[in-house]
C-alpha cells in the first residue's frame, strides 16, 4: 500500500495544475493503511474509503471522481485510462518516476512511512453473515475496551466490518467475504507490540460475543 501512496504523491506533484478539484482524491478500501491519509492529506488530496475489493474501488472512482484507486492486494486503477486494474500502466508510471528522479524504487519508498501491521484469522463458530445487529454488538464491546484503556476513538467505520481509528492506529474486525473466517487486522504508528495488544483485546471481545 506504500506504493499506492507513492504513486499518488508523485502524480499530484507532477500534475497538480491539471487535476480538477473534483478529482483531487483517491479511493482505497477500509482495510488499507492510514499512511494513505498521512501522506496525501497534507497535499490537499482526499481519501475515499470503500468496501474491500477492486470492483468497489472502481465504483467509488466512477461515483465520486478521483485520479487513482488501489488496494492492499497490489491492484491499481487509473480512471484516465479505464476503470479496471492495470499493472502495465502502473509499471510504466513507476519506470517514469525512476527515470525522472534518478532513484530506485527502494529509494523512493524511503519517503513513505511504514506502520507496523498485524493480522490474525479465526474460524467462525457459526458461518453466518454479519448483520447490522452483530456489527453493533462488536462496536459496543470495542467502545468499552477503548474507554477502559483511556484511548480516544477518532472514528468508527462499519461499511465493511468494523474499523476503529484511534490516536495510535486502527483495528479492523471483518468477516471474510469468501470463507467462514473472522479477520482482525490493524496497525500502529508506535510499534508492533501495540498492534498485537489491540489484536488480542479484540480477539477476547469476539470470544465474549461467541463469534470465534
What does this structure look like?
Helices cover 41% and strands 22% of the residues. By secondary structure, the chain is an alpha+beta fold. It folds into two domains: 108 residues, 3-Layer(aba) Sandwich (Alpha-D-Glucose-1,6-Bisphosphate, Chain A, domain 3), CATH 3.40.120.10; 92 residues, TATA-Binding Protein (2-Layer Sandwich). The strands form two sheets. A five-stranded antiparallel sheet has the order 5-9-8-7-6, with helices on one face. The chain has a four-stranded mixed sheet with strand order 2-1-3-4. Strand 8 and strand 9 form a beta hairpin. The radius of gyration is 18 Å and the shape is globular.
Write the layout of secondary structure elements.
Blueprint: H1 2-15, E1 25-29, H2 35-40, E2 46-50, H3 54-64, E3 68-70, E4 76-77, H4 87-101, H5 105-109, E5 117-123, H6 132-149, E6 153-157, E7 162-166, E8 169-175, E9 181-188, H7 192-208
Parallel strand pairs: 1-2, 1-3
Antiparallel strand pairs: 3-4, 5-9, 6-7, 7-8, 8-9
Helix pairs in contact: 6-7
Q: Ranges with pLDDT <50 over ≥5 residues? A: none
Characterize the quaternary organization of these chains. Answer: single chain
Number of domains: 2
Q: Provide the β-strand percentage band.
A: 15-25%
- Mean pLDDT, all residues: 95
The top-level CATH class of the largest domain is: Alpha Beta
Question: Which structural category fits the helices and strands?
Answer: alpha+beta
Can you tell me the CATH superfamily of the largest domain? Alpha-D-Glucose-1,6-Bisphosphate, subunit A, domain 3
**End-to-end span in angstroms?**
29 Å
Rough shape? Answer: globular
Largest sheet: 5 strands, antiparallel
Count every helix, treating DSSP H or I runs of 4 or more residues as helices. 7
Strands side by side in the biggest sheet: 5-9-8-7-6
Q: H/E series, N to C?
A: HEHEHEEHHEHEEEEH
CATH architecture of the largest domain: 3-Layer(aba) Sandwich
